[in-house]
Structures are given as structure tokens and as C-alpha cells.
Sequence to fold (900 residues):
Amino acid sequence: MNTFEKLRRKRSRSYTLASLPLVIFTIVFVLGPMVYMVILSFLTRAESWGVVAEFTFDNYADILEPVYLESAVQSLKLAFTTTIIVCAVGYPFGYFMAKLPEARRRLCVMLVMVPFWTSSLIRLYGWMIILRANGPLDSALMALGITDAPLKLLYTYPAVLAGMVYALLPFMILSVYSSVEKMDWSLVEAARDLGAGAVRAFLTVTLKLTLPGLMTGIILTFVPSMGLFFIADILGGNKVVLIGTVIQEQLMKVHNWPFAAALSVILMAMTSAMIILYRKVTGSKELEGAI
Amino acid sequence: MKKLLSIVLAAALVFSLAAVSGCSEKQETLTLYTWEGMFPQEILDGFEKDTGIRINYVNFDYDETMLAKLQAANGGDYDLVIADDYIIETVIAEGLAQKLDLSKLPSYDGINPVYQGQFYDPTNEYTVPYGAGVQTIVYDPEAVGFEINGYADLWNEQLADSLGIIANYRVINGMALKVLGESYNTEDLETIDAAGDLLADLAPNIRLIKDDYLEDDLLSGEINAAIMYTSQVTGAKMARPSLEIVYPEEGIGFGIMAGFIPSNAPNPDAAHQFLEYILDPERAADCFEYLGYYCTTLAAEQYISEEYRSFLTIPAEFADTEMEMIENISAEADSEHALVWSEFKTLCGQ
Amino acid sequence: MKRRFRASSVYLLAVLALMYLPIVVVIVYSFNSSDLSSVWGGFTLDWYRELFRDRAMGEALRNTLVLGVLSSLSAAIIGTLGAVGLPRSRIVGKGAVEYIAMLPMMTPEIILGMVSLAFFSLLALPFGMLTLFLSHTAFCIPYVYMQVKARLIGLDPSLTEAARDLGAGESRAFFDITLPLIMPAISSGMLLAFAMSIDDVVISVFMTGASVNTLPIKIYTMLKTGVTPKINALCTLMFAATILVVVAVSLAGRRKTKR
Fold:
């Protein structure tokens, strides 16, 4: 065995050691509950409370009820729309933020996070007050003569979208930011020197280099938004039935835990498609030589 | 960034160490498990001062969470729980509640018999009611061009996109059942489906469905009529007395919140003391004025101030209207309700 | 220094302004004497008075902050080590581990809370700060892990190579070269994790014991009786405190750079 080989072995041993806390923690405290959930999805509900250990596929068959299928479609639709808007708003924000001078950049990172250290429910109520009929926004618009009757903005789909975007924006901003911040700007200059226009240089160099950050932001937006439902409930007046709403109701109102578990497994399967895409972009191969 | 983080972290760690070292004294405690905001601060402080027992006030969001936690604790850890009627039936059935020692509750006789002997505790052995609520219709007569007398009037086209309802499917589907002349607690799937068909026609009138702050939407003009819980009615009516309260002619649904002592409560004695403390007529009056639910202590009614009295008791003229509690029904019927409800909500969004 | 008002700054400020808009509303309504947000009942400081009388609120706030710091800190350590180590380790099924680590993010909180309750009871762990800490760490890890991993991609390997060539050991190379390079990602991840932890209610309500209440639990469980403007007062104070810290730190940083 040559020295090089020995060195590589030693290195991978310390990497293995470094990842052990994650592996152990994940297997004990995440995998455990998850296995329980999957098992639960094949059990039978008890008449009033709890479950009976009788194996069944019925819980999965029950999902075929059109209104429950529709809720999955609605969740996908909302998650996609939200993610697209969050990208459109958050990417430029993270990009510009990374280009600020250092002191202001640090301040900006903090300023992005501070609102999110206030209870999300309380902030949602803040939006409700702003958007409500005859509320501050309506009054301002009417005083300026732009509208002459209350707009009825609240309890509509756009209100739900706005709330979702608001809640998930910092995930995109910070992901893009840490990717742009470490970017090698000389590559962009080189592209420009070679005659690429600003747009072309952005698309071929900047976007490509910041793709891992963008992809992280997309995951951190899309995945939670599949399960988020209380924003839709509060700002949408409960008129959008999302898969999260159904899970919540089955669990907490109907006491049908196995059906809720089956719905959750389906939800996870849907979001997994996104994770696979993410793993392609941030594939281990690119990381092998990184350090 | 690193510097900033380390400062924040250091500050927080010092803070947390101080926190851990701060609470080491041993004192008799009462662990009270219910929603936040169920008691005026004066009552909690007063109890601590009068008895020397420290109140450890911990909260749950849903009744179901409470039951799951109580089950995990095998009926221990918590001394006194206040929750909704239907879940208490399950709690008792699961053997997670203990019988009250009435000798420790001299004021027990002051409880309004209307709220006793109900389905969840037919023999009154386990629970002390703490507040009741009915579902009523509230509307703004200036904005609604006709008189509303019952649930059936809500289907009127004049209410298009201006009705707010609470997000409880047993109440709302139940409303349709009442219009059909059925019981809230029917387990007949076809009847429940028929109620769903009826609700489909109501969808164009629904502006919003939610449990919290419905009164704000009525006051702001977002909606003109609503089906609400009692505490919301109290809030709305106090802010704008011109609103009309309707006790639906089809029948009134009501619910009760009640306190019970878990089977393995660490300090059942303190729990009895607390129950006795809040059963005291004057204190009960304070509690109900604060809570805005119907007063369940008959002896307390005389102490309720004039301002609140009309909200905190069911008006005498409705006493003979048919009143029915929403009870637990079969799993199959409950699932059907949930399905009908999801379909209804989907229609409302279209 | 030139004071040019660039389009990019306008954009940053506009988005930031929108982010703070609901907080402004919360602050204004903390002085509203009516407990209904649709009614302006006049200016009052009563909610602040009531807040200071509520001892349990102070305890809940303390628990929330302790929990937030501890769980985001341990998520930062576990997540960073994992993101650096896992892809280069020899662990069988490391892809699966990464996927499992992300599951808490993909599972609706309510069912995650419920199955965790069942699972932690099975392990016979005492419910309270410990179970809260473990479950919060679990759902915080993905945020740090993903931020750090994204940062590592495309990082110039020659830097650590050079350090090693100069005889630095594995850990030296990590602490002196890699760690400073990925620090922005770790702090981003931690900030997000902290925000998730101090706002979590659904998992916490299942994971807590009979003696520990957190602030979000208190706020959400008020829904039954109505969230009082007392919470607005609390949020206002917390917000003011955070802003003070941020400003103080950024001023301190500026003085240091000037020197």
C-alpha cells in the first residue's frame, strides 16, 4: 500500500467519525418515529380512540376519494406557485445582499432574520389586520381615491400566496446569499472579457455557480410549503383544502390516525421527488474533491 | 457574523444557566393543564396567596393533544385538566380520570343543574363544568336586508359571499342536519350525505370559515352574518350592541367545558382545592365575565354585573327551544362527516 | 464613501419594509385598549402591565430561548460535521442517511409530533426539556446541513490541499481553512434553525412535559379564548430587544473596523 492510499484511508476515517453524530442522531430520533408512522399507516383505527393492530391497505385505498386527491393537487399547485414567486423575489434579494459592503451585509442578514423571530401567528394576524376590509390598506387606497369600495383582499387565494411567500422568503434569501457570497467573481469578469453580455454572463456563469444555493432555497421553500396549511386556513378562510388540512383534521378531529399516517406517507413520497432532484444537483461527486 | 453570533450565544447561555439555577425550590404545586387564558390573573394569584400552593399552568392546543399526553403519562403528571365535553367521555372510558371527592367540594351544589348529568359524565362523578357555550347566529341588521330567525334563512341569496362560519364540521354539518329536522348525533350515513348536499347550496354564501376572531370580521364589515361560539358573540355584542343574536328556531346546540382530575394525578388534593376555589360564587362570576362563556355556576349569577348578565346566561324565553349536545358518534359516521366537510370547503373555494 | 442610491438598494429596502410591515401593526396594536383588532379603543399601556404580572409568561419566554439556543447550536454542530463528513465518509447507505435527516422537514408537524410522542414514550424518556431539545434538534438539522452542503460545493479544494501539504493535520485543516470558509453558511443555517425552534408549537406541544411551557405553546393555546394584545406587547418588547442587540453589535463591529 502506498503512502497516498494510506492517507486517503486515514482521511475517510476522520470523515466517517465526523458524520457519526448525524448518523446516530438521525437513526435514533428521526428514523424511529418515521418507521412507527409507516407501520401506523397499515393499521386499523379503533372505534373511538387509538388503533387496533390489524393489517390493512384500506387507508391507502381511502385516499382515492376525489376530494382527498384534489387536496393533494391543491397542495402541489400552491407549493409550486409559492416556490416560483419566492425564487423570483428571493434570488435577487440574496444576490444584491451578498454584493453589499461587509458591514452592511452583516446587518442585512440580521435584518432579514429579525422579523422571523417574532411569532409567525402574530405576524399573520398583522397581515390580517392590514388586508382586512376597511383596514389600513383599504382606508389608504380609498383616501387616495384609487378605490371607492373595500377590496376584499383577505380570504382569497392571492392572500394565501402572499402569506406563503412571506413566510418562506428568508429560506431562499439566506440560501442564495451564502452561495453568491463565496462566488468567484473573476469567472464572471472572464466571461465578460470574452464578449459575453451581462445577461449571458449571468446565465452561463453566475446562475450555474449559485445553483447549489438556489436549489437549497427551492427545497427549503417547496418541501415545507407542501405541508404548511395554517397560512391557507387563516388568510384563505379555510376555503383551500390542502393535504395538510386533511391530515390535521383526520388526526385531531376524526381520530383516524392510520389514514392520517397514510396521507403523510403519500405527502412524503411527493416531496421526495423534489429531494431526488436536489441530490442530483448537489450530488456527492462534486463534493468528493472539495475539501 | 461570527462575532455577532458568539455574543448572542454567550448572552443566551448565561441567561439559560441563570434560568436553570433559578427554579430549584421545592413547594407544593398544582399542575393545571388547559388552554391558555382560561382564568383571570387575579384568580390564579389569589389561589397561590390563599393556599400557598404554586400553580404550574401548562397548555394544550387541541383536546386530542391533551388526551394523547395524558395517555403517555398514564394519567399522571397533571393534577387538573379542563377540556371539552366530548373528549372527557373518552378520557373516562380510557380510565384516565378519577372520581371527585365531593366532601372536599362544599360549593358543588351551586352548579347549574342544566349543565350536569350530560352524556360525558351522566352520573356527575368525575367533572365540574367550567363554562358552556351555544352556537348562535349573529348578524348586522343594517347590512342584512331581512330578518334571520333560523339556520334555514342563511341559505338566502341576499347573503351571497357574506357569511362567516366556525371551522367545526360537527357544528356546521349539524346545522344542515337541523334544517333537515335531524339530530346532531345521527349515525345514518345517508342522512349525513343529505346534509352535505344541502350544504353545497350554501357554499356561494360562505366568505370565510375559521374558529378564531370571527367577531373581528363581523365588526370590520368583511361579513354580515356569522355562526359563532358564545365567547365571540359576547365580544362582538359588547363592541357593537346593534348586532342581532339569533337562537336558531331549528334548535340550539351547546357544549360544555369541564374540569376533571386525572387518574394518577400527583396532587389531587390541590386540584380539589382549586375547583372549590373557582366554584365560590363571587370568584366564579369574575371568571365567567373574563371568559365570556355561559356561567355554569347558578350561585354565581347574582354576582355577574349588569353589563354582562344578558350574555352569560341563556335568555329565559329560549329555555324551551330544543337544546342538544354534540356527542361522540361512530367512527364511520364521523369519517363521513369529515368527507362531507372537505367537499363543502372545496366548493366554498370555487 | 460615495452615497449612490442604487436600484439594488431600493429593492432590498422595499422588500425589507414589507417584511417589517406586519410587525409595525403588531407594535401599534399593543397599545390598543380594545382586545378586538377590528376596534381601536384608544391608547393604553394596560397590556404591558398585564404582561409583567404574568409570571408564567416570563418562564415560557426563558424556556423558549434556552431551547432555541441549545437546539440550534447542537443542530449546527451535528449538521456541519455531517455535511462535511458524510459525503466523503465510507458509511454504507450514506445517501439514505441524508434522506432520513431531511424527513422531519417533509413530514407534517402534527403527525411527526404524534408519532414522536409514541416513540419517545417507548424509549421511556422523561418528557420535558430533554425531549423538546432532542426533537427540536432533529428538525433543525436539515436547515444547517443543507446550507453547509451548498456552500461546500465548488469550494476551492486547493486551499485545504495546501494546508495539508504544509503538514496540517485533518482537524487543523478543518478548523483553520474549511470552517472559516463555511462559517456564513453555518450562521445562516443556525439563524433559520433558531427561528424554526422558537416558533415551533405543534411538535413542542406533544414533546413537552408537565412542567415546561414554551412561548409559542402559550400563544397558540390562547386561540380557544382569544389571543390578547398582551402577546402583541410581548412581541413588541422582544422585537425591541432584538433590534437593540443587532444595532449594538453592528455599531461595535463598525468601530472595530475603523480602528
About this structure: The radius of gyration of chain B is 22 Å.
